[in-house]
From TrEMBL:
Lineage: Eukaryota, Metazoa, Chordata, Craniata, Vertebrata
Cellular compartment(s): Cytoplasm
Residues in Phosphoribosyltransferase domain copies: 56-149
Domain of life, per lineage: Eukaryota
Gene from which the chain derives: Apt1
UniProt protein name: adenine phosphoribosyltransferase
Record keywords, A-Z: Cytoplasm, Glycosyltransferase, Purine salvage, Transferase
SUPFAM superfamilies (UniProt xref): PRTase-like
Coiled-coil segments: none
GO molecular function terms listed in the Swiss-Prot or TrEMBL record: adenine phosphoribosyltransferase activity
Catalytic activity line of the entry: AMP + diphosphate = 5-phospho-alpha-D-ribose 1-diphosphate + adenine
Species for this entry: Sterrhoptilus dennistouni
């Protein structure tokens, strides 16, 4: 799709066609969403679709996961006029932090960390990442937020109280289902396309 083209009818997820497939082999993710961010209307509609389920929810802060979650997270924070917290890969923050080990989508063992002075008990956090494949990265971010007393929406909480988790795609992997069963979630993939995304087609 041309980066200047805007469809006459913009249904939810129309901008997914802007994403580019992997042409570099198995050491890379199967799909690259970054081209979507180059399209001004595509980016705006993607962020609007991610935030739609949280309309009316009390959100105190948006947190984005290193690194591609920074793009959508910062855009969501700007739209909501809220602050933005970067959840970093370990070793980049020169202040007091709390750390959490995790395995990413490729099975690599990593550590992420967050500064300890940004989240106060009861702060309602909307967690944003680009993609949830196995769920390991997002689960680690949830753990960090909750260890510091922040609130990520659990499904048993009243709809008006919580915040939650947002990503372009949440795959129906074991880890993805674990998150969706416990937390209020938002993603951009229409139901009829979800099986293709789950199968990386």
């Amino acid at each position: 799709m041309d980066l200047c083209h805007v469809p006459a009818t913009r249904e939810k997820g129309w901008y997914l066609a802007l994403m580019a497939p992997n042409v570099k082999g198995p050491n890379y993710a199967w799909l690259d969403p970054s081209r979507l961010y180059c399209h001004p209307q595509g980016l705006q509609d993607c962020v609007a679709d991610l935030l739609q389920p949280f309309q009316g929810d009390a959100i105190d802060m948006v947190a984005g996961i290193d690194a591609m979650g920074f793009i959508l997270g910062a855009a969501a924070a700007a739209t909501l006029q809220k602050g933005f917290l970067a959840i970093r890969k370990a070793g980049h923050l020169c202040v007091q932090t709390v750390a959490q080990p995790y395995s990413d989508y490729s099975g690599r063992e990593k550590v992420m960390e967050v500064r300890t002075d940004a989240i106060s008990p009861g702060l309602r956090i909307l967690l944003v990442d680009q993609w949830i494949e196995t769920g390991g990265t997002m689960r680690a971010a949830i753990e960090l937020v909750e260890r510091l007393g922040g609130v990520v929406a659990v499904l048993s909480l009243p709809v008006c109280a919580p915040t939650g988790v947002a990503a372009i795609c949440m795959e129906n992997s074991e880890g993805g289902k674990w998150i969706q069963e416990r937390y209020k979630c938002s993603h951009c993939v229409p139901p009829h396309l979800q099986p293709r995304f789950d199968q990386h087609q």
